[in-house]
Amino acid sequence: MTIPALNPEGGYRRLRIDIAYDGTRYAGWAIQPDFPTVQAEVEAALSRIARTHIGTVVAGRTDAGVHASGQVIHADIPPKPKFNRYHPLQREWDLPNFHYRLNQILPEDIRILKLDFAPENFHARFGASARHYQYRIADNNVIVPPLKRLNVATWYRPLDPDLMNEASAQLLGEHDFAAFCKFRRAATTIRTLTQFEWSRDEDGYLIADLAADAFCYNMVRNLVGAAVCVGESRFPVEWIVKVLAGKARVSDSYVFPPRGLTLTRVDFPPTGQLATQVVRAMARRGEEG
Amino acid sequence: MTIPALNPEGGYRRLRIDIAYDGTRYAGWAIQPDFPTVQAEVEAALSRIARTHIGTVVAGRTDAGVHASGQVIHADIPPKPKFNRYHPLQREWDLPNFHYRLNQILPEDIRILKLDFAPENFHARFGASARHYQYRIADNNVIVPPLKRLNVATWYRPLDPDLMNEASAQLLGEHDFAAFCKFRRAATTIRTLTQFEWSRDEDGYLIADLAADAFCYNMVRNLVGAAVCVGESRFPVEWIVKVLAGKARVSDSYVFPPRGLTLTRVDFPPTGQLATQVVRAMARRGEEG
Predict the structure, then answer these.
(1) B112, B146, B151 ranked by CB distance to A108: nearest
(2) DSSP for B12-71?
(3) Quick one: CA torsion of A26, A28, A29, A35, rounded to 10 degrees?
(4) Do domains A4-127 and A130-264 have the same CATH topology?
(5) Nearest CA to A72 among A112, A28, A105, A40?
(6) What distance, in Å, lies between the first and last C-alpha atoms of chain A?
(7) What is the nearest CA distance from B209 to chain A, expressed in angstroms?
């Protein structure tokens, strides 16, 4: 079953592209005037190779300063490459070469990890069934070695991961996460949080692993801030339940900075179920992804 | 036994300062006009807190773009802090505060790890008995994730760590390393290489661990390049022995880029033997460290 609205038209072919980036110097994924964005860099590189404008659709629209180690996008390219006098015999797309040249053009803080033709009905945004994020905190005022600083946020107080796990577990499941989302008109804030776990890595940093069908604007950084409020014993575990139930942002929680946040993985259903997932996602989230 | 030439005068007190830095945007440790250097940043921060010019002496003078995770320096500060109207009661140096303020002033790619008064006869350059470096290579054209890119050099061919270990072992011991050093007038190139070992880390990157009493200018990056020549099977293991014996730089070896190189540790003898080490180092290396 081919769903027309989901697939490229005019013989265009859809690419699935897996990307990693250091978000430090970007105003986020989404293109905007006057600020450098990851999308602008990637579309410029794609367009240069395809010799025509190529747009992209992203699975997880990361905010300014947020990183990705497993972002997924799609892009539709023309049926055949345009005639290129440097490669006069090239009649078909040569994807390994396309991939190599993209990384040659892109700055070193953006890397294309994989690039291939996408299966039918593949849609990076509406087809994704889950997004996975990781948040990294150096607590107790420890000094972060400069070579590890890019994806770590610092906190001055010591944090208790057991308390944080207790609090985080209260938020699992389907809820209206309005209390943890920056308001956007016409956007639902009902989400299903399937993972929110804290552990310490080999460097002693606190790591949060989170997964949901999708996250609202600023949601991970709000969830992390609320868990920290409990982890530093400022509020008891029950406080986080009350905040969730209140469905309104509270002024005495924290929003953690983007530098500690990385989009690590996007899940897609098996190829045969891509269309079903899209229909479900579009019905559920309406205008918003 | 206090050696006058080694110790600060006029009641000045010597600090031992352990530092880490991401060397990417610096023209090396050593101060120079017109380019940003780590030494310039550190001396500016020290001088601002001490309210008088403070110079520094470094254990390992890293080149442009080279990193440090365990650099050691010393700096001599006046016997007492200058009167400061914001802290009118401060009569003695408060080192934890000094340390904290340094990191507040310094850019985030330079961090002070430790700061304390140094023992008698401590000299960061002449007292150091060994320098340890690590070099990191992503071989076989693998794509380096942007968040790990700062301290990894890439190489397009696959490398065989067993061959590289065989070659590197040939260089251990005391030799004239002129073949691996950039020429500098009046500088000896006789060094004792005590470690030069290759392994793969959990990311699959090739790691070289090196240690010597001291390294000449560009020496680690030349050693790594020569080992790579063997590791990619361009030359046999015996080739590296001939290069060493030739005592002259060869044009068909590689010099690897600074980004893969990190000064990881500096060793000092036990406090009671500091003076002996200094006398030995000064006799050995003459003008040069």
Answers:
(1) B146
(2) -EEEEEEEEE-GGGSS-SS--TTS--HHHHHHHHHHHHHTS----EESS-PPTT-EEEEE
(3) -60
(4) yes
(5) A112
(6) 23
(7) 18
Q: Over the stretch A37-76, which tens digit does the pLDDT of each residue have?
A: 999 999 999 999 999 999 999 999 999 999 999 999 999 9
Q: What are the pLDDT digits (tens) for A88-106?
A: 888 899 999 999 999 999 9
Mean pLDDT of B141-157: 96
**Which chain A residue is nearest to residue B67, measuring alpha carbons?**
A147
B130-264: CATH number: 3.30.70.660
Query: What are the domain boundaries of chain A?
Result: 4-127, 130-264
State the complex-level ipTM. Answer: 0.90
Residue of A nearest to B104 (CA): A143
Which helix (H) or strand (E) segment is A141 a member of? none
In chain B, the residue whose alpha carbon lies closest to the alpha carbon of A154 is: B108
Q: pTM for this structure? A: 0.92
Query: What's the pLDDT at B102?
Result: 97
- The contact set of A with B (CB < 8 A) is 20-22, 67, 69, 103, 108-113, 143-147, 149-151, 262
Contact list, B108 vs chain A (CB under 8 Å): 146, 149
> Residue B21 and residue A146: Cβ atoms within 8 Å?
yes
- CATH fold for the domain made of A4-127: Alpha-Beta Plaits (3.30.70)
CB contact under 8 A, A111 and B262: no
